[in-house]
Amino acid sequence: MGDDRVRIGVMAPGSRIDTGIADRVRTFAMDRFSDRLVEIYFHPQCFLASGHFAGDDAVRAEAFLDIANDESFDSLWFARGGYGACRIAEALIPRLSDAARRKTYLGYSDAGSLLAGLYKAGLSSLAHGPMPVDITRDGGDGAVERALAYLIDCAPNVLEAGISADTPTAAFNMAVLSQILGTALEPDLTGHVLMLEEVSEHMYRIDRLMFHITGNPGIRKVAGIRLGRCASIPANEPDFGQTEEEVVRHWCERSGIPYLGRADIGHDADNKVVPFGRVPTS
Amino acid sequence: MGDDRVRIGVMAPGSRIDTGIADRVRTFAMDRFSDRLVEIYFHPQCFLASGHFAGDDAVRAEAFLDIANDESFDSLWFARGGYGACRIAEALIPRLSDAARRKTYLGYSDAGSLLAGLYKAGLSSLAHGPMPVDITRDGGDGAVERALAYLIDCAPNVLEAGISADTPTAAFNMAVLSQILGTALEPDLTGHVLMLEEVSEHMYRIDRLMFHITGNPGIRKVAGIRLGRCASIPANEPDFGQTEEEVVRHWCERSGIPYLGRADIGHDADNKVVPFGRVPTS
Predict the structure, then answer these.
(1) CB contact (8 A) between residue A179 and residue B182
(2) What is the tens place of the pLDDT at every residue in B230-274?
(3) Nearest to B239 among A51, A175, A178 (CB)
(4) Which of A229, A281, B173, B188 has the lowest tally of Cβ within 10 angstroms?
(5) Given B49, B83, B239, which is nearest A204 (Cβ)?
(6) Residue B86 and residue A211: Cβ atoms within 8 Å?
């Protein structure tokens, strides 16, 4: 309508959030972006509970479509990860409207399953980056501010610094990527710089995930792998004997995938935004 | 050479064991199979340590080949799981001799990566079942006796009771199978009854593993899935809301794979033997 109002819709594809998180994020956004007309709508589904999930599969899928297919929303922001996005992703794809295809989607961790499926379906404005739940972290305001600056202004300074307009990029949690390989959600990452991060996995599991990821013929077509942060690694018994970077270098070497160094992403307040595909040159 | 001596070689493809486990297993075998000429050889590699592993990849691979390619051994028994078999499996395959192809291999858990690769390579006497380390479990003597009865006499009474000569079978730990799908170790399980078990994984991870496994086009060609025991499941926060059987039924239904009920396998002393492929009719 030509106005500069920005409408952001939030839904939870996996686990639920408390209403307090929504309140904090809205208050923070009003304060920090007081000069802008920003509306953040938290779909009531975010606060539902059905066992592990923020509502059952059908409820979460409908909430996604309520926002994605609504022309009045500029973007869909995933409330948090947890687990559950892979359960609803495949069935959503055929139900996406043109409005859904024009929208920006932002999230990470478990939400990566949905980003992957949407990327495979040809959507062009998808990004790996902070979510509303990150406001509960130490320094989490910074993460949420970064996400909002991306959703409101597409601010280039919130992007991961190594992103180049020359090469397409994608970013995933290692376990989430591993668990979509070979499924209907696996995107074509040929030629992409693939950034990977992990949290709360033992070193032996990080090693096994890298075996699995780099052993995949599709993944062997990436331009290279960059390693984000691996946080809260539980103690390995006995000590694993290799760091996460040594492990990733090992599997890159074995599989013939270039190892391109570290990436500024992770399950933390410093997590930067990584758009899927090629960043438009401005 | 026509004698009825049985030689069993043991190596550790992932994590190490203590010499005490080898002593207990040998003593138990001498006692329980006192009427037979049974030699159980524990390769010295079993007791090595290299960070997480029982020796580095090269050392573990050589130990495997020392036994596999030695005509004098009737079988290779994996000492334990842990983690590491996937790191050595692919490179071993081209180095297998005819002697290796005539041998029986027995193990489970992480050793499933090797069983998978060997099965893909056309070896015909592979089985999922107890390992020497199981002697440390409550009632573990029974598990080790079952394994030995299989290795020494191919005793039919130690097999999982639902196995039919009409249908080929395979058995895996869910996480181990998930992590070889799409890699060079993935076997063709078309038409197989696939038995799956798990240990120490949260319910949300079991759900995600089943999403991944049943989402794989190769796995969708199995004759059906039977669910073994899922032991030591850590508490899910919040409660997951579904049992492991409900989860497996759900994914079977979604993927069109017949769910065929429970299987008598698991990370426990009751774990039965499941030969890969078709059990020969006697």
Answers:
(1) no
(2) 999 999 889 999 999 999 999 999 999 999 999 999 999 999 999
(3) A51
(4) A281
(5) B83
(6) yes
Predicted confidence (pLDDT) per residue in A226-235, tens digit: 999 999 999 9
CB-neighbour burial class of residue B37 (10 A; exposed 0-12, middle 13-18, buried 19+): exposed
Angle of helix A203-214 relative to helix B85-92, nearest 10 degrees? Answer: 30
Contact assessment for residue B96 and residue B70, using Cβ atoms and an 8 Å cutoff: no
Per DSSP, the three-state class of A85 is helix
| H runs (alpha helix) in chain A | 19-32, 57-68, 85-92, 98-102, 112-120, 140-153, 174-180, 203-214, 244-255
Does residue A45 contact residue A78 with C-beta atoms inside 8 Å?
A: no
**pTM (2 d.p.):** 0.97
Token representation of residue B97: 């001799």
Tokens of B175: 């996480």
Instruction: Find the closest chain A residue to B85 by CA distance.
Output: A208
Q: How far is B155 from chain A (nearest CA, A)?
A: 34
**Does B183 sit within 8 Å of A241, measured CB to CB?**
no
Percent of chain B whose predicted confidence (pLDDT) is above 70: 98
Q: State whether B52 and A241 contact (CB < 8 Å).
A: yes
CB contact under 8 A, A180 and B212: yes
pLDDT, residue A279, reads 87
pLDDT in tens, A115-142: 999 999 999 999 999 999 999 999 999 9
A159, β-bridge pairs = A273
Choose among A50, A84, A240: nearest Cβ to B52.
A240
Distance, in Å, from the CA atom of A4 to the CA atom of B197, rounded to the nearest integer, reads 55
Question: Rounded to the nearest 10 degrees, what angle do helices B244-255 and B203-214 cross at?
Answer: 20
Q: Which residues of A fall within a CB distance of 8 Å from B18?
A: none
Our CA-based measurement puts residue B33 at a distance from the nearest CA of chain A, in whole angstroms, of: 35
Give the mean model confidence (pLDDT) for residues B3-32.
Answer: 96
Chain A contact probe: residue of B59, B208, B244 with most A CBs at under 10 A: B208
User: Nearest by CB to B51, which of A49, A84, A240?
Assistant: A240
d(Cα B32, Cα B180) in Å, to the nearest integer? 37
Dump pLDDT digits (tens) for B113-168.
Answer: 999 999 999 999 999 999 999 999 999 999 999 999 999 999 999 999 999 999 99
Distance from CA of B202 to the nearest CA of A (A): 11
**Cβ partners under 8 Å of residue B66, min gap 6:** B9, B11, B43
Q: Write out chain B residues lying below 8 Å of A178, CB-based.
A: 178-179, 212
Label the pairing between strands B126-128 and B274-275. Answer: antiparallel
Confidence band for A2, pLDDT divided at 50, 70 and 90: very low
Mean pLDDT of B38-55: 97
| Inter-axis angle of helices A140-153 and A19-32, nearest 10 | 60
User: Residue B130 in 3-state DSSP?
Assistant: coil
- Beta-carbon neighbour count of residue A194 at 10 Å? 23
CA distance B126 to A2: 68
